[in-house]
C-alpha cells in the first residue's frame, strides 16, 4: 500500500517520525513537505535527528499570509497526489499544511487519515482551531490521542472511523530517550544544572503579534529571580526586536534548538512556561510542571491532572505561578502506551475496504 504523508512544520516532523518507521516495514511511504518551516534550524535538523528520510517532495511554499500560504500548498499538494495516486493520505495536527493536505485529499476523493484528531481549545480565534475542526470533518479515519478527543468528536456527530490510539508524540519521546541523554553537554555549555532553571517558549501569533501580551510575558520572564532559557522562534525574535525589549542578564535568549536539544532542556528544567501544545505534553511526559501562557489549551488532560496551569499573558499571574505552582499527585497515563504508530498502521487498511 502506498501512503502519502503531508508535513510542513516541526511538530509534524516529530509526529511523522514514529509513523514513518512503522509504515516502511510493509508499505511505501511518500513524504510531501510543504515547506511551511524551511530553514535548517526549523526543518532539516529535525529530519536528521529523528531519522526521517529526505522528503520525496518539497513544495517550497514558505511563509505568507494564511490564505496565500494555504492556497499555494493546496495547489502543490493536489498536483503531487495526482502524480503519486496514494491509497491513503495522512495529515498531522493543526497547521495550514494540515488543512491544505486535507482539502486536497478530500477533493480528489482519496481516503484521508488525521493523526491527532479531536483536539479542541474551543477558541475559534485561533487559526489552529479552524484547521482542526475542518480537517476532522472531512477525514475518513480519525486517530485520537486521548478519550477527551474522542468525546469532542462525538459531540460534533463524528463517531465513524474514530480510534483512540494514544499520542504519537509520546511514541517519539520514548524512542528518543537514549539520544536525549547524549545531549547533556548542552546544559554544561550553558552552565546549567538539572532543576536549576526555567524553560520558556513563545511562538503563537496570538502572543507574538499582540504587543501588550508579548510585553507582559517578556517582562514576567525578566522579573523572575531564576535563570530563564528562551529558545526564540524566528517570529518571536522579530517581535522582540519591534518592541525594543532588552532581556535581563538571567534571561538567556537562544537561537532555535533542535528536537533532541529541546527534549533535554525540558527534561531538566524546574518548570516550563510555554504557549506550545507540544511542549505542554512533553513537559507532562517528563514530569516537569508546566505554566501555559494561554487562557485555554487543547490538552485539557494536563490541566485536569494538576500538572499544567493556565495563566494567559498576565504578568502577575505568570509570576505567581512561577513562585507557587507545585503539582501534587501522580500523572495518569492519558496519552497511551507509546505504541500509537503501530495501532495507526493496523487501522489504515480499514479505510480502503469501506
Summarize it.
This protein is α/β, with parallel strands linked by helices and 354 residues long. Helices cover 47% and strands 15% of the residues. It has helices spanning 10-26, 44-50, 66-84, 96-107, 127-138, 147-155, 168-181, 185-190, 205-208, 211-223, 234-243, 259-268, 277-286, 300-304, 315-324, 340-347; strands at 2-7, 28-33, 57-58, 88-92, 112-115, 141-144, 162-164, 197-201, 227-231, 251-254, 271-274, 290-292, 308-310.
How many beta-strand elements? Answer: 13
The CATH architecture of the largest domain can be given as 3-Layer(aba) Sandwich
Radius of gyration: 20 Å
Classification by helices and strands: alpha/beta
Broad CATH class of the largest domain: Alpha Beta
Order of helices and strands: EHEHEHEHEHEHEHHEHHEHEHEHEHEHH
The residue-averaged pLDDT reads 93
CATH superfamily of the largest domain: Glycogen Phosphorylase B
Ranges where pLDDT stays below 50 over 5 or more residues in a row are none
The profile of the biggest β sheet is: 7 strands, parallel
The amount of helix comes to 40-55%
Distance between the termini: 16 Å
The figure for the number of domains is 2
- Tally of separate helices: 16
Instruction: Name the beta content range.
Output: 15-25%
Q: Report the principal-axis shape.
A: globular
Would you mind describing this structure in some detail?
- By secondary structure, the chain is of the alpha/beta class.
- It has two domains: 2-167 and 336-351, Rossmann fold (3-Layer(aba) Sandwich); 177-324, Rossmann fold (3-Layer(aba) Sandwich).
- It is built from 16 helices and 13 strands.
- It has helices spanning 10-26, 44-50, 66-84, 96-107, 127-138, 147-155, 168-181, 185-190, 205-208, 211-223, 234-243, 259-268, 277-286, 300-304, 315-324, 340-347, and strands at residues 2-7, 28-33, 57-58, 88-92, 112-115, 141-144, 162-164, 197-201, 227-231, 251-254, 271-274, 290-292, 308-310.
- Strand 4, helix 4 and strand 5 form a beta-alpha-beta unit.
- It is globular and about 60 Å long.
Amino acid at each position: 500500500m502506498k501512503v502519502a504523508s503531508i508535513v510542513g512544520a516541526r511538530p509534524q516532523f516529530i509526529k511523522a517520525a514514529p509513523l514513518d518507521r512503522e509504515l516502511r516495514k510493509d508499505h511505501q511511504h511518500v513524504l510531501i513537505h510543504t515547506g511551511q518551516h524551511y530553514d535548517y534550524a526549523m526543518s532539516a535538523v529535525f529530519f536528521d535527528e529523528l531519522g526521517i528520510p529526505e522528503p520525496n517532495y518539497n513544495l517550497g511554499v514558505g511563509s505568507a499570509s494564511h490564505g496565500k500560504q494555504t492556497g499555494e500548498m493546496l495547489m502543490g499538494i493536489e498536483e503531487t497526489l495526482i502524480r503519486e495516486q496514494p491509497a491513503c493520505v495522512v495529515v498531522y495536527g493543526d497547521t495550514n499544511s494540515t488543512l491544505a493536505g486535507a482539502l486536497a485529499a478530500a477533493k480528489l476523493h482519496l481516503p484521508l487519515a488525521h493523526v491527532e484528531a479531536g483536539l479542541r481549545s474551543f477558541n475559534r480565534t485561533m487559526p489552529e482551531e479552524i484547521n482542526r475542526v475542518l480537517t476532522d470533518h472531512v477525514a475518513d479515519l480519525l486517530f485520537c490521542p486521548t478519550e477527551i478527543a474522542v468525546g469532542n468528536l462525538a459531540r460534533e456527530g463524528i463517531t465513524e472511523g474514530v480510534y483512540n490510539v494514544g499520542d504519537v508524540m509520546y511514541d517519539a519521546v520514548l524512542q528518543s530517550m537514549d539520544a536525549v541523554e547524549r545531549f547533556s553537554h548542552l546544559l554544561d555549555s550553558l552552565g546549567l544544572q538539572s532543576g536549576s532553571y526555567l524553560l520558556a517558549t513563545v511562538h503563537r501569533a496570538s502572543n507574538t503579534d499582540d504587543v501588550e501580551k508579548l510585553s507582559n510575558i517578556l517582562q514576567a520572564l525578566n522579573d523572575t529571580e531564576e535563570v530563564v532559557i528562551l529558545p526564540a522562534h524566528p517570529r518571536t525574535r522579530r517581535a522582540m526586536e519591534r518592541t525594543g525589549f532588552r532581556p535581563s542578564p538571567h534571561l538567556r535568549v537562544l537561537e532555535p534548538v533542535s528536537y533532541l536539544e529541546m527534549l533535554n532542556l525540558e527534561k531538566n528544567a524546574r518548570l516550563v512556561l510555554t504557549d506550545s501544545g507540544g511542549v505542554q505534553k512533553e513537559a507532562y511526559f517528563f514530569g516537569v510542571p508546566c505554566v501555559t501562557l494561554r487562557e485555554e489549551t487543547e490538552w485539557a488532560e494536563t490541566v485536569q491532572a494538576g500538572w499544567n496551569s493556565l495563566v494567559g499573558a498576565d504578568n502577575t499571574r505568570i509570576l505567581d505561578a512561577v513562585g507557587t505552582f507545585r503539582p501534587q499527585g501522580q500523572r495518569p497515563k492519558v496519552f497511551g502506551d507509546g505504541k500509537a504508530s503501530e495501532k495507526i498502521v493496523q487501522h489504515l487498511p480499514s479505510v480502503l475496504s469501506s
